[in-house]
Design goal:
- With 418 residues, the protein is mainly α.
- It folds into 2 domains: 264 residues, no CATH class; 94 residues, Arc Repressor Mutant, subunit A (Orthogonal Bundle).
- About 12% of the residues have low confidence.
Length: 418
Amino acid sequence: MSQSPHAAHYFLAARECEISRLDNVLRAGKLIGQLSQLVHVLQRERGSSNIWLCSEGMLFGEELAHRAAAVSQSMSNLFSDLPALPPASALQPGAFRIYHRIGSMLMALESLPELRNQIHDRSVSHQRAMESFNAIIQQVLNLVYEVADIDADGQVASALVALFTFMQSKEYAGQERALASAGFASRCFSDSARQLMVELIAAQESCLNSFSGFADASIISVWSQQEAKTSEFERLRRLACTGVPGEEDTVLNWFALASQRLDMMKIVEDKLINKVMHLCQQSLQRVQSSNLDDPQTLAGVVVTPEKPLAAYFAASAHHNEADDDTGLPPQLNRSLLNLIQHQAHRLKTLDNELAGLRATLMERKTIEQAKALLMQYQGLTEEQAWHLLRKTAMNQNKKVVEIAQAMLDVSTVFTSTP
């Protein structure tokens, strides 16, 4: 007759699964840090390239080589942390998305040498160069979102949402730096450039509002103090939004101030990544040091023929149930029962606090899919597709995600168009 299954084995297995899950989050956090650094240096190369192109090769010539070297170093660091491919026989179906995202990012990064040659020879417009950098950076950010699409508890999930929204705000800020750099360098702002400046500022504010709703108060305070010191930056922002070219050295002042702001955003971004890691490490330490590791507890919890789990109940016949409303022996109260209660509470908290995360990610995916449709079937750039979605939403007094979803609902119109 086979032995009956024992609860202790399953709870121990559950604890090992929890440890494995937290290890995965920690590894993801390390990779996100590398991706964040790559985005940061790509953003700077994008801005420097715009100044070089729009100054007709008069400014930032030496800077381009430094920026390319920084990107190459960051790529090398990132590649060493990418997950290794297992043998084909060991590939897991669930890994499809992350492998696809890695492949898409690597393919985008492979276009950098040719893009740099075109920039160096000034055979590409600053608009086209910026669009290319935007597309590359977006592929890196897409991998960030995929890597972080993990089973996280409430606190970690909130920290991840704060990180996502802040990283997206920083990318809008990077696009703003590059766009205004081009205008100040060429001493000309087109109507579309000024409109895009306004939209990029609004998009940053929207992301920062979401960030403030999820981030730790101390991190919000760090960012708020930085934003209070940007009066000159705001003045130059207004010049760009109104199309005023400024003085000859305005482009250098703007780029320096915008870069200081982005460097500060990188510091805050690093703090957000560290917050995620810290929360995971705390959880990991709690699980690893739980009472399930107590030899006195495990002496009877680990199942043996000589001392089954039921022996705990017999050994505790003298226990006063009035002292403990669970009615269970103190050994179980301190270990297995606590784990049961903790897991139940964590799942309930997860359902509540991840609702916002799921909505945020689903809205983003819906908007990205709608933009892809417009780009594929209407021949629009990513910026033009986003502008059209926002304009349509404002005209109809609806949210962008509502317009995007409506577009996806009638997507057969696009696919059937000759």
